Amino acid sequence: MYILASHGDYAKQTLKSCEMITGELTNFATVSFKDPMGIDDVVKCYEDIYQGRQDSAEEVVIIADIPNGTPANAANTFIAEHPDVKLYSGLSLMLTLSLATETPAEEAISQTIELMASNIKKKPKKQSAAPNKETAPVNTGNPLVNVRIDSRLIHGQVATMWTRSLNTTRIMVVDDQIVTSKVQKATLKTAVPAGIHLSILTAKGAAERINSGQYNGQRVLLLVKKPQILAQLVSAGVKLPAVNVGNMSMSQGARQVAKSVAVTDEDTATFNQMAEKGIEFYHQMVPNDKQEPFISMLNKKEN
């Protein structure tokens, strides 16, 4: 069985296009990742398909759209519990057609690459997602060039857009629970772009390292899931630049204040308390989006 997974309905539409050629494919399923879903929601989709297949002995292969996006990151988390499942990235109609003709996954991927390459007269040079160390500007100020609240942490938007826009040299994930999870740490290490350093720290550990000047001269993108972690850093003396509230997944008791942001009463109280201390918050999904003042969005939706 093949599970096609993507941001939005790309996987669903790819399968639909394939079936226009092949007819109905009963051994294919799709997963569509949309806001305000989180990694846990995508993992549950995989689990439902895995448990619902007719033949429990049937091999399951997940084909994600991109290697470091949420569908792929969720697949890595899922595979930690189901090591019999295989994961590949690079979903396309050409690849799906090869799989539909019962070509083994690795062979289908090789065929797809060969067919793509045959149409290229001159192969483009491979470029790294990481900034060029020689061209990245020297940072003489606060090493935290951007602070982002994002329940998905390292995913497609962060790995491919924000790291480039910010000339990031290090991603710092601060989360007390992830530090103790081998599975989650492994997933983050898989998702981080080549050439960029990764630190996974507790709030206490991060504060100690930042305050000691350990990251001076670097360009650090700080990622947390919840504002409460930032409140701990501020209490420990960390000076934060304006904070980007990028993505907070829907949870029990939460209310949606933006397309990709859902907050609980506890979150709201934390945001307002930090704002009273002079911390600025804004909402910006991707670098090309306009920054929107977040506290006014938060309290406008609340009333």
Task: Please summarize what this structure is.
By secondary structure, the chain is an alpha/beta fold. The protein has helices at 10-22, 39-52, 70-81, 93-100, 105-118, 156-166, 182-191, 203-211, 227-235, 265-276, 294-302, and strands spanning 2-7, 28-33, 61-64, 86-89, 144-150, 170-174, 197-201, 220-224, 243-247, 255-258, 261-263, 281-283, 292-293. Strands 7-6-8-5-9-12-13 form a 7-stranded mixed sheet. It has a 4-stranded parallel sheet with strand order 2-1-3-4, with helices on both faces.
Record keyword descriptors for this entry.
Rossmann fold; 2 domains; Fructose Permease; alpha/beta; PTS_IIB_sorbose-sp_sf; single chain
**β-strand amount:** 15-25%
Q: Output the strand order for the largest sheet.
A: 7-6-8-5-9-12-13
CATH superfamily of the largest domain, by name, is: Phosphotransferase system, sorbose subfamily IIB component
- CATH structural architecture of the largest domain: 3-Layer(aba) Sandwich
What is the 3D form? elongated
Estimated helix fraction: 25-40%
> Could you say how many structural domains there are in total?
2
Q: What average pLDDT do the residues reach?
A: 91
Number of strands: 13
How widely separated are the two ends? 48 Å
| Main sheet: strands, sense, barrel | 7 strands, mixed
- What are the secondary-structure elements, in order, as H or E? EHEHEHEHHEHEHEHEHEEEHEEH
CATH topology name of the largest domain = Fructose Permease
The CATH class of the largest domain, by name, is: Alpha Beta
Poorly predicted runs are none
Q: Rg from C-alpha positions?
A: 21 Å
- Tally the helices: what do you get? 11
Q: Give the structural class.
A: alpha/beta
